[in-house]
Design brief:
- This protein has 449 residues and is mainly beta.
- 11% of the residues lie in helices and 36% in strands.
- It has a five-stranded mixed β-sheet with strand order 2-8-7-4-5, with no helix packed on it. A five-stranded mixed β-sheet has the order 10-16-15-12-13, with no helix packed on it. Strands 18-24-23-20-21 form a five-stranded mixed β-sheet, with no helix packed on it.
- Strand 25 (415-420) and strand 26 (429-433) form a beta hairpin.
- It starts with a helix and ends in a 16-residue tail after the last strand.
Length: 449
Amino acid sequence: MFPLAPWAGRSLTAVLLSTVFAWGAPVAAPAAAPPVQAAAARSITLDPSEGPPGRRVGVHGYGFGSCTKAGLAPEPRPAEAAEIHVTWEGGDNPSVVTARADGEFETDVTVPSGATPGTYRVTARCTANSKLRATADFQVTPEPGPAALTLDPAKGPVQTPVTVTGSGFDGCTAHRGQAGTVALTWDGSPLPARTPTDITVEGGAFTAEFAVPSDADATDHTVTATCVGYEQVAAEQQFTVTAVPGPGPQPEVKLDPPSMQLGGGSVTISGSGFNCPEVALSWEDEQWDTVAPAEDGTFSARLDVTPDTGEASYTVRAECTDDSGAGAAAAFTVTGTGPVPPTPTPPDPTPPTTAPTTPPGPTSIPVPVGMVVGLILLGAALLALAGYAFLSHRHRGPRWVHHHVSSRLRPAPAATNVAEPSETGPPTRSVRLEPHPDPGDQTLKEEDS
């Protein structure tokens, strides 16, 4: 039906295939090359950069990250760090170290003790690749004089405060050139309450203080000052611990007199055993004076007791003004019996007369005549008053009437003719007579009306 169709299909296929062969297969894009990192500059620094022989020098290296050992196969894995040797110029005993992942390392070297003043080279070299190396210069200074130590005082009992002075410690420095520190020891043991940071070296010298240990024996002991980190810089000195002296005389106070009657007065205070520059005197805990003792610890002072001081016991105390524990006290007593004034002798009203000579007999006391007469008159007056008071109040009885009344009977009317008069009113008593035949004997009886 279509005779040309197969031929056309084969022609189209041939064209397409020829096109493919003409252009070729697609080519993949080339892989990106890894970035090239610039190698860090290799270098070393020295701390310090100068010093005397025997000085320890810190070495800090940079840019040694490629100092590694080659692996057995080229597979991607971290390479093992190779050794780095740090040596002093002309030295054969290197300091061995490896670098960290960042290519840095830290180590130290020591300036040879025989090094003369001058400039020396310190070298850091990778053992796996000798081209990886760096150098730095160190200046050797003249060796300082020997370190020395002085103690002030150099002997004394335990707990003695001592000032220690060090010199010649120029080689004692700290990290990065900072001032070094010194540690003090007593017979090789650290002194109590002292740390190395307490004692700083400035200009090769230092000053510090310490107290002699309380348990130290009475003999010689070694005080040593050593530079921290540089033990070769050290000095020592001897301290002699003396025997502890026995207790001296204890303070004592005496009062003269120790007591006094009411009315006041003066008291002497004597003290001994006061080994201090000044003593305070107090009465009942109230200070009233101070006194300076003599070189032998004695003193004497005067205390005035006022007249209005009451009857009681009081405390007098003396103590050192710089040490309240060094003191003593005494008791002073004021009694209640005061002074008795003398009794005056009355004057004699009569002049003395010469008495006749009589044989010795008992001693008689003369009595004034006026006193005797006065006493007699006083007694008579008292008796008169007593009699008057007694008689003025006594009632008269029948006997008084019988002796003072008389009567005679006669014919007459009864009447009252006898009456006892009264100075202040009507009669108090009366007698009524009434005639009657002779009754015989009559008796009158007085009755109170």
